[in-house]
Structures are given as structure tokens and as C-alpha cells.
Amino acid sequence: MAELTYREAVAAGIAQEMARDDRVVMLGEDIADAGGVFKTTVGLLERFGPRRVRDTPISEQAIVGAAMGAAMTGLIPIAEIMFSDFFAVCWDMIANEIAKARYMTAGQMALPLVIRTANGAGSRFGAQHSQSVENWAMAIPGLKVVAPATPADVKGLMAAAVRDPDPVIFFEHKGLFATKGEVPDGEHVDRLGTARVLRQGSDVTLVALAAMVPRALDAAERLDREHRISATVVDVRSLVPLDTQTILAEVTRTGRMYTVEENPRLCGWGAELVSIVAEERFYDLDGPIIRITTPHVPLPAADALEDHAVPTVARIVDTVVRTAG
Amino acid sequence: MTSSSDIDGSTRFALYRSLLEIRVVEKRAYDLFLHNLVKGTSHLALGQEAVAAGFAVAMRPDDYTFCTYRGHHHTLARGAPMVGVLGELMGRKCGLMAGKGGSMHLTSVRHGVMGSYAIVGAHLPVAAGAAWSAQYRGTDQVAVCFFGDGTTNIGAFHEALNLAVVWKLPVIFVCENNLYMEYTPIASVTAVEHPAADRAAAYGLPRVIVDGNDADAVFRLARDTIAAARAGGGPALIEAKTYRHSGHSRADPAKYRPPGELEDWLRRDPVTLYRTRLLEAGISEAALRDVELATQGAVDAATEAAKASPPAPVEVVEQDVWSDGGSAWRN
Asked: Class of B9-303 per CATH?
């Protein structure tokens, strides 16, 4: 096991797949010479050359559209959209074209491609560079959606995304780039559509994604230590496909469910989970399901404001203590 | 311009056959609307046949076509079966996409028709991507991307042109300028007189305009431009001047056109123009009649076969979202 940062794991996952398969190519703004504005693609140009690692103009529609055209004709492109907020300028390509092409053509084409993007808050970049938009992607039939929380998951899920025959939206969290973790040596390939139980407790189940996962884990420690509340923590990891069985099993065991979501409130990913649990495990619940989310506001820039908006460890703990009773 | 000694007889017959097939199928599609056998919308290419025929005949079978919601002509010109096209318009099981796409999304990958795209401009970057793939794989395939005059005012047009030039991609962008963006004259909403050609200079490309109603002229230009792109010369932008004989879509009676305009263009109808050209070149009336009767018969047979096909089966609704054939999003 080697210790890597989250950002190093991005490059490690991509490198593993590029070394294995010549069809894998990359394109995006500042990804080649500069190694990515978040330094997530450092060393890839040097190792794989300018034919396979290509800088593009600031043309998000061209980036994602070209990835689509390349994917339908035999390549496996990895396109980077620098900030997930910029999905809005190429949403036609993602939501109308890439997501629907296989379906509309009755399976005549496959689109094995990955769109990577830096998602989420923590950098004080304001409302157009800090959003969590995983729920946008989740709402479109035809897109697979993953959002890893650890370096090991970044590498393993990146490999799985590249090998998947369908379009995968890969959310890297800006607030986690500097975090470190053990990553298995040698080839590491994970599975899409699998949640992971990180901690098992007996009183409540916290279901979290991406940067909310370490916060849920910290909250669980504090709940245990300070309030004698025993919490399970599930990392959803993959929104589409969604591992409902793992989540349903953990919610059934504790009888209480909390989602911890960075996306703004309305139609956040947790809302779908709540609906599934309400339909299928209603009589196993010991109390209301509670969603802990960013309020339904654009994200403010100032550190004190951004910190207040996004769910914190303190807010998770307070909410659980107040309601788990 | 009418000199055609450089185009051999079999090519000229192929062009005429393609023009006719598109013309007869499009007229049939219109008749089928009137009988309520074609639902939804449809955007006919009556009058624009020569652009499709001229390019398709010049393309290699493994070259890629990308087109728009007005794409019946390009799909047919690449050899997609008429029964599949008519069946798709009618929502039948025999449709090219089993009824899941409809008129605006005709696709036949095995004929190189990589999709008809109904969001204006979207397919230009996609075509650039297919060309990038061909360049990367070293197959010397060329992508040809057709679009309307209205597309020249949307961002994706400019993003695709710029990327294609910077990466020197084997892609040919072909603007079918039929004078109207939907219901509005293109000239009244565009900063330059020639919406595509006058923008070429912005991307360091030559300004190329062709008579889009002259199948020989289109074929000749297509042949040369495709050869250049295949040889690594990079992209091209072509503006083909043409005219649609009907409205923008099924819903549009095209009353905004000035009196006499349609009649002027009908005098330059691409099908009759080419028929006259072939007669002048010494092809017999009887030979032309043979092609025309055969085409009419083939369209009649395809129409009957499509009508006889069962409706699109409802099982397909939840199929082919994913490559495993299904649509499951949870376990």
C-alpha cells in the first residue's frame, strides 16, 4: 500500500488505464502542459505524449462533444471540465446528446467515455466555482454518476469508469484534493454501483457522499464519544447505479436514517434515497428520515459564509442529537 | 460549370438515383403525414437533395455522416434502407431505431450515418470528435457534418470550427443555406451576407460557396475536399446555396416567403436540373425512365412494407439506456 493524495490518485487511476489501453485518450483545458489547474493530471503528458493528452481551448461544448464523437467511433476519451459549474455551458452535450444517443438509436452506438470534473465547496470560490451538481447529473437518464471520497476510491472508481461501456460522470471533490490515504499497490479496479459501509453502529445511519463522508465519520466519532449515540456511516460512492440494497440494509438495522448532502436542498440526491426508504422500509423506521443539506441558496464566497452553508460536523452532530432521542 | 467530362457515367447514374430516391421518399413522407401515418414533426429536405447526393456519392463507405433534424436526405443518400427510414417516421418496429428516435434522429451506424441531431449546432463538435478518432486511429476516414444556415449563429459552430482547425482534423463542415432559419430569413439575423462562408476567414479557412442545387458541382467539390481532408489537409467549411421547397416543418406553410421566390427556385429544381443535364449528355430518355420507375417501385414497396410492420414494441421503452441492453439504475 502506498499513501497518495486524492489528487495524485486521479492521475494514478488515469495512468493505470492509459497504460493498459491505447484507446484511452484525454482532453481538457490546461490538462497537458500545466498538469491541470488542480494538478490532477501531472505527469500524464510526459508519460503518454501529446497525441493522447491534449490541451483544448476554453470550449466546453467542443470538449464534451469531441469526446462523444471519439467514443462512438472507437476511442475511450476522458474529458475534463475544469469546474463542475461549467457543466451548465455544455449541458446540451451531456444531457441531450451523450446521455441519449444509445437509447435513441436503439443501441446502435456505445459511448464509453468519462467526464471528470472538480465539484464542491471549500475553496471560497463563490457561487459559480463551488457548486455540488451531482444531483443535476443524477437526474438525467443515461448517465452513470460517481463521486469518490478517498484516494483509493478515486483510483479504483476511475479505473471502473474508464472500463465501463457507458458514459460516466466522475466528480472529484475540490475540498478533498489534498487529503491522503492508502491506495492498493498494483492494478486497482473498483466497481461502480457499490456503496461502502465505513462504520457500523446500532442507533442511526448516516448516508454521505464525497466531502460529506469524512464529516459524517467525524460526526459519528463525536456522537459516540460525547452523546453515546452509535452511528453507522455509509459512503454512497455511486449515485447511478445506486446501491440501494446496502443502504436499505443499514437503515433497517438502525431504524433511523440521515442523509448528509452538499448539494442544495431541492431534489438533492438524498431526496431520492428518502423516497426509496419510505416506500420500501417504512415499517422498519423508528422515526422520521432527516436530510442534512446545504440550504437552497447559491453558495457565498466568504469563508465564514461558505462554512456556514455546507453541512459541518457540528451541524450533523446537533441534528442527530436533537432528533434521534 | 456544366462540364462534366470528369464525372463518369456510373457516378452520374448514382447521383441521379440518389436525387430521385430522396425526392420520392420525402414526397411519400408528406403523403403519409396527410394520412396521419406519420406522427410528431418532420422536416423535409425537398429541394435540398443535391447536397446530400453530391456528398454521399463522393464518400467512402466507412466515412462518417453527421446531420440535423432535417436529415432524411443524408440518411437515405448513405444507403440506409427506405423501409427503415419510413418505418421510423411511422413509429414501426421496422424503423431504423425501432421507433425510439423518430424523424429528427435518423441514425444508421452501419451506413456511416452517425446520427441526426435535433439541438442546433450540437453535432459539429461531435463530428470533430469522430474526425479526431479517425486521425488518432490512422484510418484516413473523413467526417462530413451537414447543418443549416441558422447553425452559424450558435456557439457550438464556432467552438467546433476552431478546434477542428487547431487539431487539423479530417472533418468537412457543410452549411446548407436554404435562406431561412426556421421561419426567419437568415439575412435578417446574421451579421454577414454568407452565414458560413463569410465566417471561414475567422478560422483561417478558405471561403467556399457552391451551388447546392447542382449535383455535379456538389459532387466535384465534395470529391476534392474529401480527398484533401483524407490526405491530412485538415478541415473545410463549405456553404451550399439551396432552398427548401416546403416549410420549416410539418407545421409551417411558409407564408413568410415573398411571392415568386419558390417559383424561381423550382425553376432550378435539383432533380429536373440534373435530368436535363443527363439528357444533354446523351443519356436516353428510356434509360432515365427506367431509373425513375425503379425508384418509384422501390419506394412503393418500402412504404407497403413499413405499413405492414407492427407498431414499435413497448418492450423497447426500457431497453438500451445502457450497453447491457437495460435501463436499471439501482439494485
From this structure: alpha beta
